[in-house]
UniProtKB/TrEMBL annotation:
Name of the protein in its database record: Calcium homeostasis modulator family member 2
Subcellular location: Membrane
Membrane topology (UniProt): Multi-pass membrane protein
Pfam family, one: Ca_hom_mod
Entries under InterPro entries matching the protein: CALHM
Coiled-coil annotated residue ranges, if any: none
GO MF annotations, alphabetized: monoatomic cation channel activity
Keyword terms: Ion channel, Ion transport, Membrane, Transmembrane, Transmembrane helix, Transport
Cellular component annotations (GO), alphabetically ordered: plasma membrane
Annotated family: Belongs to the CALHM family.
Amino acid sequence: MAALITENFRFLSLFFKSKDVMIFNGLVALGTVGSQEVFSVVAFHCPCSPARNYIYGLTAIGVPALALFLIGVLWNNHTWNIVAECHQRGTKNFSTAATFLLFGSIIGRAAVAPVTWSVISLLRGEAYVCALSEFVDPSSLNHFPPGYGAETLARFPCNEVPKNLTSFKEDVVRILKYESQLFGWLLIGVVAVLLFLMKCLKNCCSPLGYRQESYWSQYRSNEYKLFQHTAEVHSKILAANNVKQFFGFVALNKEEKELVEEFPVEGVQPSPQWNTITGVYIYRENKGFPLYSRLHKWAKGLVENGPGPESQEMHLLAS
């Protein structure tokens, strides 16, 4: 039981692997705040009509949040690593905890923008007031004149109310904004507590020391940047060779000519090699030596296999 619990918690280190992730999440949140402000000023116009208010208000909060969430899922490299992993190898090498927290990582990162959007919408209160104004109980308002119902209350978010109800409009808007901001602060509190707990569990359950985990983070970042840049150069030189073979010459600028001369490309990597270095990576050690990525594992000449005595599943997901 203890071993099972330890295995499950080890994977929580996924959520806080590097400072780059936190910085990126911060930038996403700031961008979402700016977008929400622009939307509120330019695009948000409460219809001030019964039944329509509720739909429009909830749509203004929920639909952009849903769209941002889906964009976050599609934008996350781990999504496509999982797709590649399932296509090439299936999920036989994933424990239940690993599978659950793989998806948890994707959902957690994708939730930054929609949660920010929802929080800002609730703190501003405009969409909430628009959505729920028609549901305010007139009897809860002191000395509210009889004969006015949901149709009149639905117009409170706009400036389309009888003069004798102006003071009641201010009361209704104030009450609804109080509720909206209360929900917003509660959402912030819940998210903050969850982040705190995840951070604590990560530090307690990570099998790697602080310095080694920092080194692994730097390695992942450097490998990704170098791989991307080298792939760009390699593909450009290969394309230049193919174009030259077809036309007999290739039009290159000075810098591109120097690249072609400096890095001769004879061929391309076979598909099995691409498949070997593509997909989800679970941190492993071989005879006590760390393997920091699929590329690192391939470079060491180790074949693909499941976790064993010499290759233990310890830490989840490289970028």
